[in-house]
Write a structure and sequence with these properties.
Blueprint (H helix, E strand, L loop, with lengths): L2 E2 L5 E4 L7 E6 L2 E7 L5 H6 L6 E6 L5 E6 L4 E2 L9 H12 L1 H9 L7 H9 L4 H4 L2 H12 L10 E3 L8 E4 L2 E4 L6 E3 L2 H11 L5 H8 L5 H24 L3 H14 L3
Helix pairs in contact: 4-9, 7-9, 9-10
């Protein structure tokens, strides 16, 4: 159902997980609007990582609406994401941008350690997942093998680089939906891509294309974050009642888990 934002704009809700996204319409103009998203959008757009920010407005109830240019394009498929070099290019740019690090620090960006991420996974974990014997084995492995985290090596990460958040427009690739942006290890984003979309046998080649040496330490860290990402997605799907999708994530976990 459309809602009037002011005398000019109508907001049409977009179906999604958060209920915070809208199509904004005014006469012949159309924009993508997100409610109470990160103040980093302007900086990310300036870097060419996400579509251009058009305006930001405060509503009467205190919400902030951010409008980005509406681009006709398509979402990457899950089969594409592990094969495209521009996915690597976008992630490398994001993780190595000093200006984005400075701006995220200024707006109070949170720093998330492996321990915090694992604790967050266990918070409100459905009983059925907590009691699953296979998942318990994975939990035990992850608790015993927390990767080291050096604060001086933290970087800006997207935090949810699943295929649904990659938009191709006229052969240009954008990363969208920045509600989870934070400071963390770059392996958090990398592990999501590798854990969901590439066989373990291809991880070393992908890492070399990204620009890091796939030594034992890097592979172990990437493996830990990959397990975490699949666990998080299984929990997310289960909590929203998508049992089939949750089971598919558990099957993916079985493909990559080696104990």
């Amino acid at each position: 159902m459309d809602m009037r934002f002011d005398s000019d704009w109508y907001l049409q809700p977009i179906k999604g997980d958060t209920g915070k996204a809208y199509i904004g319409k005014k006469a012949d103009d159309k924009v993508f609007i997100k409610r109470n998203t990160t103040p980093m959008l302007a900086a990310l757009a300036k870097e060419g990582i996400t579509p251009k920010l058009i305006w930001t407005k405060r509503t009467g109830n205190g919400d902030t609406l951010s409008a980005q240019e509406w681009l006709e394009g398509r979402i990457l498929t899950s089969e594409e994401i592990g094969k495209r070099n521009d996915v690597i290019d976008v992630l490398y740019h994001l993780h190595h941008s000093k200006s984005l690090q400075e701006i995220l620090a200024k707006v109070g960006g949170k720093t998330v350690t492996p321990q915090k991420l694992l604790t967050g996974y266990f918070t409100d974990l459905p009983t059925e997942l907590g009691n699953n014997e296979f998942l318990m084995l994975v939990h035990q492995y992850m608790e015993k093998n927390l990767p080291t985290f050096k604060a001086n090596e933290k970087t800006v990460v997207h935090g949810d680089v699943n295929y649904r958040n990659w938009l191709v427009c006229q052969n240009y690739l954008y990363l969208v939906d920045w509600d989870s942006i934070m400071f963390a290890d770059a392996a958090y984003d990398i592990g999501t891509v590798l854990g969901h979309y590439l066989p373990v046998s291809s991880w070393s080649q992908w890492l070399m294309s990204y620009g890091v040496q796939p030594d034992v330490g890097m592979l172990e860290k990437t493996y830990w974050y990959a397990l975490l990402s699949v666990l998080q997605e299984a929990k997310k799907q289960y909590r929203r009642g998508a049992i089939k999708e949750a089971n598919e994530e558990i099957l993916q976990l079985k493909r990559i888990y080696s104990g």
